[in-house]
Amino acid sequence: MASTKKPKKLIIVESPTKAKTISKYLKGEYEVKASMGHIKDLPVNRMGVDIEHDFEPEYVVIKGKEKVIKELKKAADKAQEIYLASDPDREGEAIAWHIAQEIGKDDKVKRIIFHEITEKALKEALENPTDIDIKKVNAQQARRILDRLVGYSLSPLLWRRIDKGLSAGRVQSVALKLICEREKEIEAFVPQEYWKIEALLEGSAPPQFKAILFKYGNQKIEKLSKEEADKIYNEVKGSSFLIEKIESKERKKKPKPPFTTSTLQQEAFQKLGFSAQKTMFLAQQLYEGLEIPGEGPVGLITYMRTDSVRVSEEALKAVRTLIKERFGKEYLPSKAVQYKTKEGAQDAHEAIRPTDVARTPESLRGKIPEDHWKLYQLIWQRFVASQMKPAVYLTTTFHIRADKAIFKATGSVLKFPGFTAVYKDEEEEGKQLPPLKEQEELKLIKLEKTQHFTSPPPRYTEASLIKKLEEEGIGRPSTYATIVSTIIDRGYVVREKKALVPTPLGRIVSEVLSRNFPKLIDTSFTANMEEDLDRIAQGDRQWQESIREFYDVFSKELDRAGKNLLKLEEFSPIKCPKCGKPMVIKKGRYGKFLACSGYPACKTVESLVSKKGGNRSGRKNKNKRHQKNT
DNA sequence: CAGTGAGCGAGCTTCCGCTTGACTT
Question: pTM value?
Answer without folding.
Answer: 0.92
